[in-house]
Amino acid sequence: MSVPPAPVAPRTGYSVLMPFTPARPEQILPFAALTQWSAAHRLWQGQSSVGDPHQTFAYAAASGFHVPVGTGVTVMPLRHPFEAALQAQSLAVAMGHPVVAGFGPGAGVFQRNMLGAPYRSQLGACREYVTAVRGLLDGEDVDLDGEFFRCRATLPSLPRPAIEIGLGVLRPGMARLAGEVADTAITWLTPAPYLRDVVVPAMREGAAAAGRPVPRLVAIVPVALDGPGRDPAALALAGNSGHMSMPHYADMLRRSGIDVDMKADPVASAKALIAGGGFLSGGPAEISAGLERYWEAGVDEIVLNVTGVHLTQGPRAALKELEEVLREVA
Fold it and tell me: Where in the numbering of this chain does the Luciferase-like domain appear (predicted)?
């Protein structure tokens, strides 16, 4: 049985990120409904220790909301490549729409806690993982005996929509690798100029070396509209302090010209993030102009992230925020 190839498409449009991890699967339904009934293209979820995104998406499908979805990203130490491919295929069958299955190695401390030690090579581990998952989803007899993963298996093919394999990308090395082996590069908290000047050229370099098309670029962008009593820095911290505290995110931000020091001065770090374009805040026209810079940088899909709004004002405010931004930009 032939397996449909993952398409490499031009600008997809605006998508939305679940702004919180559902503790109960029914909590995803208002956001699945927004995706189905609005101009939003796809619904995304990230990795969670509260609920598995594949199961939550499947619940939405069983409730009647069949929409394109993406995982941005699930972390490799939690799933063998065979399990990852099986979950992606099962999700595509359940949703009846294309799936972006995004993967990343996770933070070094998480790797140590799950595996006993970090991957010796982050890029090497990602290369092996994506190679195995791709082969399985393509219906191949995979025989991988690598440094990081071993997989000798074949995944039975099912009639299903296409599945794109994504890699979480922050820095040039992973961007080049995504150009070589992935269908999609997925970024988080990356300012538009950094994507234009660093990530996109590295992706093109990797794709050229591998003799393949340049992958799609997906940017998950934190946003918040102005409003009475709203402090942009507080919103930025509420939704992004965890990422800003991680060494690999701090390094990426420094490379983009944004100095963050969450231990010394979190508020100054949040203000620097806003000034550097890593967090978009303002009126509808300002948000729209900021998002336009992502299109100009070469992004193919923008994922609106209103986590800060949810954490400070709740899910209804977050849903309303997404509706207002989508009306302005989509």
Answer: 24-300
Measured in whole angstroms, the distance separating CA 161 from the mean position of its chain's CA atoms is: 20
| Amino acid, res. 314 | G
Alpha-carbon distance 71 to 103, whole Å? 8
**The model scores a pTM over 0.90:** yes
CATH number at residue 297: 3.20.20.30
35 and 161 together in one domain: yes
Q: How many domains would you assign to the chain?
A: 2
Residues 35 and 156 in one domain: yes
Q: In sequence order, what are the beta bridge partners of 75?
A: 104
Do 145 and 202 lie in one domain? The reply is no
- Mean pLDDT, rounded, for 271-299: 97
| 162 & 227 share domain | no
Q: What are 39's two structure tokens?
A: 């101009």
| DSSP conformation class of 77 | G
Q: Which amino acid is at 165?
A: I
The answer, yes or no, to whether residue 117 has pLDDT greater than 70, is yes
Fill in the DSSP letter of residue 141. Answer: -
Q: Which residue, among 239, 326, 324, 329, has the nearest Cα to 278 in the 3D structure?
A: 239
Domain range spanning residue 198?
192-330
Asked whether residue 184 is assigned to any structural domain, the reply reads no
Measured in degrees and rounded to the nearest 5, phi and psi for residue 57 equal: -60, -45
What local confidence, expressed as pLDDT, does residue 330 receive? 81
Amino acid in position 199: V
Residues 122 and 249 in one domain: no
- Tell me: do 243 and 280 sit in the same domain: yes
Name 137's Cβ contacts closer than 8 Å, sequence gap at least 6: 3, 85, 88, 89, 155, 163, 165
- Distance CA(128)–CA(107), nearest Å, equals 18
